[in-house]
Write a structure and sequence with these properties.
Helix content of chain A: over 70%
Order of helices and strands of chain B: EEEHEEEHHHEHEHEEHHEEEEEEEEEE
Shape of chain B: elongated
Structural class of chain A: mainly alpha
CATH class of chain A: Mainly Alpha
Number of domains of chain B: 2
CATH topology of chain A: MetI-like fold
Order of helices and strands of chain A: HHHHHHHHHHHHH
CATH superfamily of the largest domain in chain B: P-loop containing nucleotide triphosphate hydrolases
Strand content of chain B: 35-45%
Number of strands of chain B: 20
CATH architecture of chain A: Orthogonal Bundle
Shape of chain A: globular
Largest sheet of chain A: none
Radius of gyration of chain B: 24 Å
Distance between the termini of chain A: 48 Å
Largest interface: A-B, 18 and 23 residues
Number of helices of chain A: 13
Largest sheet of chain B: 6 strands, mixed
Distance between the termini of chain B: 34 Å
CATH superfamily of chain A: MetI-like
Number of domains of chain A: 1
CATH class of the largest domain in chain B: Alpha Beta
Oligomer: heterodimer
CATH topology of the largest domain in chain B: Rossmann fold
Structural class of chain B: alpha+beta
Amino acid sequence: MGKLKNKLVAVPYYIWAVVFIVVPLLMIAYSAFTNEDGAFTFQNILQIGIYGNVLLRSLLYALIATVCCLLLGYLLAYCMAQQSERGKNILMILLMLPMWINFVLRTQAMQDILDLIQSWMEAAGISLRISNTGFAIVLGLIYNYLPFMVLPIFTSLEKLDKRVIEAAEDLGANRMQVFRKVILPLTMPGIGSGVIMVFVPTISTFVISEKLGGAKYNLIGNVIQEQFLTVYNPNVGAAISLVMLLIMLFILIIFSFLDDETKEGLL
Amino acid sequence: MENIIELKDIHVSFEGEVILDHFNLNIKDKEFVTFLGPSGCGKTTTLRTIAGFIQPSQGKVLFEGKDITALPPHKRQVNTVFQRYALFPHYNVYDNIAFGLRISKTDEKEIAERVSEMLKLVNLKGFEKRNVTSLSGGQQQRVAIARALINNPKVLLLDEPLGALDLKLRKGMQTELKRIQRQMGITFIYVTHDQEEALTMSDTVVVMKDGLIQQIGTPEDIYNEPRNPFVADFIGESNIIEGLMLRDLLVKFEGVEFPCVDKGFGENKPVDVVVRPEDIEITEPKEGMLCGTVESVTFKGVHYEMMVRSENYLWKIHSITYKEIGTRVAMEIIPEYIHIMAKEV
């Protein structure tokens, strides 16, 4: 009886999952393997080859952004966890505040700031380009997704038993050893969630690359958007989406198969 | 015996609240010392000061005569068994115990030998690969002890290590801790609020209250010769009654004169008299004896606990003879069982 009730509770979610997750995925798969007339074809998949460069660039930018978010985010989360309750709340609000502002507006503002800095640099005779570059895109990715790295790491640091740290110190570990042998492995779950929450959206972003890259540095997200909205070739768009999905699935599966020590080694 | 640890004029306060004030204590080498007191008496603070987790704002910690006050915990030759163990949840039993040796970059072969030695010491052979979170409280406790002992500390600090165990397990671990201490031949500093635990295991008991040492002595001293009413009350059960020291070897309380073995208090001096419940014998009432009426009787297994009301005092008595409620009885106390304490000024 109890079990039946539990199952009933999940029914709304099942309906949701079927209507908004399973059916759309099947539709994407269907479009990816058919042409405009609905006939089966591999043409769409084979066509992806010409976007190889874009795909590699997307992966690279997402990777750089994720690594930077991890380093910055861990540091920030660590500092936050050391604060008093009040300090934690203030830092948390500062971190979340930008997220309450519209995403597109935020990105546009960043573009304006970079343009401003660029004009100052030109006035000072520095010929380095900042705005409308790949660097600007990565900067935008880091800026927008840093909170998604900080939050899970902060949570796992908060859950950490302080006496375990004392135990390590007591057994002769200096601060670096305490971090490497106790704090880092025990916050691994937080790092894992953070990496996924940053890597997955950054690899498929299109707003940030469009605004901050000056439309010169297309990412795979832009290509998909183009296929659906400008070129109007949804079959190719679906095919790219499907391949992206599989790539991400592949990366996540590999990540989850690594044991903790290998992950520590990677960091 | 030499002092291994000396605390000199230690002052510790938290957020304006003074925990330890001008605290002085010497701990002898190879002794089993217990800090005993109610919660908030400063016993754990004292332990953490020795471990290095608390920096006193004043005073010195000496280890084998050398000042280690400024030394961080990881550089001190003491190790701690923490309250509720604080094992590393991401390591198995073997890796938990090996932690200290790995930090000091010991050869893996030697580590393997030492770990198996330690596992044998704490009776956990064959548990090497077990996940620490799957162990029972008693087993986790043993891992914590092995982990702390593998570094060969000269002093082992134990912060209420048996607090989370059930009574039977606790009794077993008490004997075992004592055995381990003898076998290793090192100093144990043990913090507890359980007086029975302190009496069972210790060579020396330090009774503390409000950051002040109330009495230092062997368990027998503390039990038989408590220095003040707090110690008398905290260590075991006792009847504490106001009396008048008439002269040497004679004390009067509840209107009855009792010969005793204490002297040197002066004549007609008010004192506190301590009598343990098991030291009162119940007899037939006669003229001139301390008499009272039985108010309650509770069966306690080995004995009955009786509350007997005399003129001004309700006596707690442990006796193997049963008396019904309402019975009028006399209470006899032999001189050796009467303990006199000077009134606190």
